Amino acid sequence: MLIASLAFLCGCGLLLWRTQPERRWYTGWISFLMPFAVLVYLGIRLPTWDELPYREIWPWVDSIGLRLSFHLDGLSLLFTLLILLIGAVVVLYTHYYLHEDPRQGAFYLYLFLFMASMLGIVWADNVLLLFVFWEGTTFTSYFLIGHRFHQEGSQRAAQQALAVTGAGGLCLLWGLLLLASTQNTFALSQMIQGPIDLADPNVTLALALILIGACTKSGQFPFHFWLPGAMAAPTPASAYLHSATMVKAGIYLVARLHPLLADHPYWLPTLLSLGAVTALVCAIFTLTKTDLKALLAYATLTQLGLLFVALGLNNEYASLAVVLGILAHAFYKGPLFLVVGIVEHATSTRDYRSIARLASPLKVIFVISLLTSLSLMGVPVWPGFVAKEYLLSALLPLATETGSVLGWLALTAVVAAGISFAAIAVVLTYRLFLKRHPDDTTGSVAVHHPPFSMAAGPLLLAALGFASPLFLTGPLGELIDVAAHAIQDQGGHFEVHLWSGWGLPVFLSSLALALGCGIYVLLPRILRFEDRILGRVPSGADLLDRLQAFLVYGATNVTRLFQSRSLSTHIAIVMSTAIVIVLVAWQRSGLDVSTLRIVSQSRVLPQLEIILAGIGAAAAITAVLARARLTSIISLSVVGLIVTLWFVLFAAPDLALTQLLVEVLVFVLMLIILFKLPETILPTLPLQAHVRNLALAFGMGAFGFGLVLFTAGEPVFRPIGEALIKAAPAGAHGGANVVNVILVDFRGFDTFGEVTVIAIAGIGVYSLVRAHRLRVRADVPGTDPQGSDASFTTPRHD
Amino acid sequence: MTELYSKYVLAALTAALVLLAVFFLLRGHDLPGGGFVGGLMAAAAIELTVISLGARHMQARIGRLLVPTAGFGLLLAAGSIIVGFAVTGTVFAGVWAHVAFLEIDIGTPLTFDLGVFLVVMSVTALFLLDLTLALSPDDVRALDLEETGRAESGHDGQRDESAA
Description:
The complex is a heterodimer.
Chain A: H1 2-18, H2 27-45, E1 54-61, E2 66-72, H3 74-97, H4 104-123, H5 127-145, H6 154-183, H7 188-191, H8 201-217, H9 226-229, H10 235-244, H11 249-261, H12 267-287, H13 292-311, H14 316-347, H15 363-377, H16 383-401, H17 405-434, H18 452-467, H19 475-487, H20 504-532, H21 540-562, H22 567-589, H23 606-625, H24 629-649, H25 653-676, H26 687-712, H27 721-731, H28 738-746, H29 748-770
Helix pairs in contact in A: 1-2, 1-4, 2-3, 3-4, 3-10, 3-14, 3-18, 3-19, 4-5, 5-6, 6-8, 8-11, 10-14, 11-13, 12-13, 12-17, 13-14, 13-17, 14-15, 14-16, 14-18, 14-19, 15-17, 15-18, 16-17, 16-20, 17-20, 22-26, 23-24, 24-25, 27-28, 28-29
Chain B: H1 4-27, H2 35-53, H3 55-62, H4 66-88, E1 96-99, E2 104-107, H5 108-134, H6 137-147
Antiparallel strand pairs in B: 1-2
Helix pairs in contact in B: 1-2, 2-3, 2-5, 3-5, 3-6, 4-5
């Protein structure tokens, strides 16, 4: 059932991708029906509340413990509802937002793939499967952010999001594997039940790594910077991925592991402090933004910080605060993003300072904005208010009773977040829709009216959010109950009360509300302050840019060092590497050189060997000393022919044949080259080059000598040849030539690899000689006549 | 640099070398030889024609075929592996079939070796031919002309066009 849903969503994405959705007026509603159908299907097929969790297991790669095993409990169900419901609304909206975009189909594809990945994250029971889906959201997010790849900053934002969340994903994999090995299972549901040795340093490491993964995904300080950058994505993607669902994946993961790690001494304080710092910093940053999407992005970060704070608490209100926070946030932030998209669509700007009095032309939008902003503000009995109530109720005992510093910090953060939320809620309603523009005398702005279908989605979400308190005694209450129990299995039934009576939480909420409205008046001054001071502090995005530039710089220098344009340097590096590796291996093996003996295996007269060796040595010396190139080449060939003869003497006809042919072909090649070279005398080398060449030559000579001594002397290891010779007739269809049998039968894989390398080398030569664009032309401006280092320079995004 | 004697010797010698190459390839499984040696031998035969007939002539005749041949050889080797896997369930397992009317056995190691032969031959020939062409400015221009579709096919000799 679950896997069928995932397959269906992927199929829908592919279908929309190939059918040019931008040309069909009905695409929006059709695509709306797709996630909605899954939601209805799951609703019909799912067991009753008491029968949760539902399980589903399919085999995949059993050898590494990877199974398509799904596990659907209350927490998963909560996320499933959000993903599918908001997903349906967002795909409907997308069709109108990207109404003339020829790449709308691709956008739909990534959106549906994302939807499937996100559902996979919350359904996966196997940690490896979870990681696969986790990376799935990372990649689809990358493509969605980079959708307008030709626009300035879009690529940079996409790459930064990919770098941050991708690196976090790798940390997460490491942490999950550590946890899986200490718990001895890959199944999450078993992992979190089993007893855990909290003193194990591996568990602490796993905890840190998993937190890094969760923090990068959920934009916790100091990894928060990618999220505002991700606002380069088209607004539907921002609303869906970067507000309602994907950024909550980290929250989901932490909540999922909460039962297992809550007793760890570092778990709760770390979550609490991370969340508090994020909420505090981002609440302040929120006030300094004028771009509506950036405003909402920082508000989202603040809310994510608050959710971490709630996760860092351990009492009966905390898990309710998490669940309510997720629900309320999804139902007000999603529509608000969509509203901003419509406002941008209507006025062609996102800077709220140049927008005014939209209430009369955009009445429906104003209603949506009002309904959701009141929730954002935390006006009593709106969902946002209830969520904040529970968070404060969970937090207050820690701050007031134990008087811990962290508790007070978190309390400050929550109140600051409340103030900031109230201030931007005023911006999103009064400032945008009601206030008269100072320069505007006519009283209205020229706007482009959105079609009703575009507003239908956010209106639905806003209405659902507004009406949600009505369902608290019905299915919604049940859902909240099972979800909260999945985070923290404490006691009996969780009940949500819209109003918990007069008390400190209500007082703090009202204080934040009042202060927020006051701060709104001061916003212009804050902006001026930001220009003067905060604008000069380098942001995380700049630091990541610098890190990237540094990496490229380092890689360029390393490449220059090892891949210089001088052929002799190249050869020197290769040879000395070989020598050093063998020397190190020899040192570590503890092999005693004095035990090596020269053993004669010759079948001919020793005099013949001596004569051959003499000729070879003489030819080698001639090759080095000769002043004329032709003499050198011929002498080299003589050395090669002597080696061939040697193979003949030792009855190795295959080697002799190959060696002979290679010698002939190399000789021909050298002659070709020689024919074209100017007939100058060899240049005189500086002394140090001579010394280097001599040292290398002697090193290589000793290296070769040692290797031959090692292999041809008294056998140190048992030779593998005998076994192969014995196996050849039976194992290879009566092959009598063992050399060839080894090449094509026993070690066929090696041969295949070698042949592939040869073919690749062929392609290399082909492209070097024939490809036009690789030939550097001095007359074309912009090309580097020295050679092409152009591909190694830092990519710039300015 | 077409010499008179090489024209006459060429045909016989090239044919002999190619035959020898195929001979080495086929008997490789039982006696000294095999795809690698055979491939080098065939490359030597091609190089012989390059030296005697000229690089541009050979470029026009076989230049386009070399890279596809290497790719085909690689595919043949991979295909042999896959056939072995499909029949026996083990990758790289040899599968043999007896061809009754020819009185010989044909097996996947042989086709694998044929793949090796083709790759080695064509890549080595490509090295030699392309380097010969690249080292002479006139011939590089010939490559350019060919790629823009204005090559004179079968043009003999390489030095009768004066350098522009």
